[in-house]
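Weekly modeling sync, notes
Attendees: S.R. (lead), two postdocs, one rotation student

Agenda item 3: backlog of single-chain predictions. S.R. asked that every request posted to the team notebook include the full sequence so nobody has to chase files. The rotation student volunteered to paste the first one in as an example of the format we agreed on. Action items at the bottom.

Example entry:
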Amino acid sequence: MGSSDEIVVTRLDHDANVAPWLAVAEERGATIRWVGIRDEDCTLDLDDLAAVLSARTRLVAVTLASNAVGTIPPVAQIAEMVHAAGALLWVDAVHAGPHLPIDVVALGADFLVCSPYKFFGPHLGMLWGRRDLLESLPAFKVRPSSDESSGRWETGTQSHEMLAGLLGTFRYLEWVGVSQGGAAGIPGAPDGGRAARLRAAMEASRAYELTLIPPLIEGLVSAGVEVLGITDPSRFEERCPTVSFTMAGRHPQEIAAFLGERGINVWDGDYYAYELVRGLGLSEAGGMVRVGLVHYSTLAEIERLVDALGELLRA
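Predicted structure, as returned to the notebook:
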């Protein structure tokens, strides 16, 4: 990476997939190129991406799912565009972890990062990368440690307690795959290996979560709030059940506190999706209120949320 190179980042991403690349560019004298979003549905502007890609592009960093508005970018399509330009694709899959089956080969990723804390595990960092890249890049390590992946990137004693917790997480997800995937008739769920059971868990979770998105968004709209992101029912496959909204005349922190007093846990602010919230003009207004559903959320909980928002609107 040098002064003639460019790194592409997006205004949809969590700042953890932006700020490090800004720092690398500053350190190496490289240039940052930005990909914007379409304000009306909070999706990536792929025309913008096509315009910034060039022979100077070295790496493109993109999210697999927005932690703020739930958008799922077409990463496989983006990978084709990136590779056609001769660049590498870095995928932030942290927020996608609990919501989507992830196939690094199908996505076309060169690197993919995630954290188990998002899929019900401990606070660890995970990096997948193409072996040829991981073994060719320089690693800061002690000389006796292995030069092969993944040892060359894991110098020192590992957090065995955290790894034990991660194994427990996998066992839980395997149980989800067998119980829910089997009930849904997903191939390989009951009697396949670990990979098949984990994939069944995520496919079953995704299928169930897709049934929660329509009543959640319809309920929020009927309650009189403004939902950010994709609201067209024909496009719900392009999002996960992370839904953010604003309410006229109410600060997001006030809304979150009101709901919290009624045992409904939401979050407010920008969730480190700094560029997204700033671009939507919501930074000075306190950001948004975020609702996050997962595979154990229920329709009854959605109804409680909508009823509580109606109560707040009438107050």
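Discussion: group reviewed the output briefly. The mean pLDDT is 95.
Action items: rotation student to repeat for the remaining queue; S.R. to check formatting next week.
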